[in-house]
Amino acid sequence: MIEVRILTAQDVESYRVVRHTVLNSDPVAFVTTAAEFAARDTEGIAAQISPTEEHVTFGAFLGGQLVGILSLARETRPSIRHRASIYGVGVLAEARGQGAGDALLQAAIKHAETWEGLTSLHLAVVETQHTARRLYERHGFTVWGTQPDAVQHSGQTYSEYWLWRDMKPGQ
């Protein structure tokens, strides 16, 4: 059974392993490269995943082991504070198909619902990530645009789909 909770600085080592593994296993899906992430220090990563009022990173656990991650951040500037973004979503290959992605998205949406005045969630997905896009669409996200020439990897250029989910009450 998948369990999801908000990660803290104490989870930094397991987070580091999962993040580095998903960056290596599917480099096209992420803007950050595995090499860039590997160069980051533990203190910086711990600070990044430490929850704040406007940012949390969720972890999905299977058998007590971290197998998936997702970050949720609310905009802080007054004119866009009604929006939040989901990013850095990754599930270890051996844990896919067991509900970790669904559980992570459910937790993020539920948490976002606690943010007063929040009216929309946003995310982007690279065109090659068909399974991820279907996951997001199952959770109410819809594509509102496509950014051509968004990501380059190994000499190839990929588009990104931009998705949003209405978070207004009653939606």
UniProtKB/TrEMBL annotation:
Q: Which InterPro entries match?
A: Acyl_CoA_acyltransferase, GNAT_dom, YpeA/RimI_acetyltransf
GO molecular function terms attached to this record: acyltransferase activity, transferring groups other than amino-acyl groups
> Which keywords label this protein?
Acyltransferase, Transferase
| Superkingdom in the source lineage | Bacteria
- Record domain N-acetyltransferase: where: 2-168
Q: Which Pfam families match?
A: Acetyltransf_1
Q: Which Gene3D superfamilies match?
A: 3.40.630.30
List, alphabetically, the PANTHER family matched: ACETYLTRANSFERASE (PTHR43420), N-ACETYLTRANSFERASE DOMAIN-CONTAINING PROTEIN (PTHR43420:SF47)
Q: What is this protein called?
A: GNAT family N-acetyltransferase
Organism whose genome encodes this protein: Deinococcus cavernae
